Amino acid sequence: MKVLLVLPPSSSKIREVLETTSPPMGLAYLASSLELDGHEVRIVDSLAMEYDFIDVVREAKAFDPDLVGVSASTPTIYDAYKVVKMVKQELPNVRTVIGGPHVSFMAKESLEECPSLDIVVRGEGESTIRELAERLEKGRDLRGVRGITYRDGEMIKEGEDRPFIKNIDAIPLPAYHLLPMDRYKMGDHRVGTILTSRGCPYRCIFCSSSKLMGKIWRARSVESVLDELRLLHDKYGVREIEFLDDTFTLHMKRAEAIAEGIVRSGLDIGWGCSSRANTMNKRLAKALSRAGCHSIYIGVESATQRMLDFIKKGITIDQVLKAFKILKEVGLNTVATFILGIPGETKELIMKTIKFAKKLKPTFAQFTIFTPYPGTEAFDMALREGWLITRDWSKFDTLTPVMKLPGLSPKDLRMLLSRAYLSFYLNPSYIIETFRKRRFFIFGKAFRALIRYLSAKFS
Prior knowledge:
By secondary structure, the chain is an alpha/beta fold.
């Protein structure tokens, strides 16, 4: 059968700030899995192609698919609904499906909100989409398909959860040949992304990853990772890689083995990855640096241990200080992320976090507002306590307050977020260091992003 997979048109803050976008890996994995069974697949990456909704519908009409699948996060779910509705209007017989983190936890609500939507794929989708396509191709009903919630006449039915794929090396490499690989660039360098593991054993209350991909960490073999890196480098000319793992350094010896493999293979790539304050040491940092790693993302979140314990981050302030000291000594760039407006936090504690960010002196800092996404413990807490002030999912962008907390109004949070960015990036010592190390290119982008953010919030 013919399957069209769509990343819907939407405003992308990453694209606005970095003037780039990256491959939709979820769709690329679904596509390669479908191709195993002989299905004809196309991917429409609306962000990379700069498509609007009319363009997507035009592509759908030209391809005339039997099944249209759309990927969406919480803030982009309405864009996914719009794609489904417009495609269904033009192709009434097409079956429509949405997957992604939002619908995985709001499946029934999503089907109720979007009458043109036929099926929701929950959680890990590669095995589910294959079984779903087979059933539809043979004209069989969907009863018994695990991992889906679907419309059956006037009723909404739900299959049981599908077990996670144990051996993720068995999943075929992403269908890069279906993507506009020449459009993924940062400056003059082609950009690629790679996922080397799934699942997260940590329990952060603001993150749904452990529910979406499981609490058990599942890793690809080192050789499988290197094969994909060689493919991106040799066939597609990719020179800049972002590892998408929640925590690339979760198994420190494995991360070091991948780094050593990159050196051994002679791969001329620069790359970045995510780590945690408690999964970094000097030996690993040096190995990553030798292999071309230039940037490490670390979730610091708060300067107050009580807040870190409340969000179940599983780290200490001392571990944060130690990790950043190591990374600076090795010469790696650091991107520190902070969350403002954690339940129970006061204005004074938020100011303490802002001061801590300046004390840490990361290369870059990202400040966001505590946002309770569906599927997280935070979302359940917000519902139970009556904190939510909106269920307009487009506002769940981590820059817009969606909760009213005791002692912290939405207006307070907006002002504190603005203060955090201004205080960090316009700090004289930061500006001097930026010019001393000649980080003009990225600093210019960060400054333009700051101006855009302030303009949007106060216009």
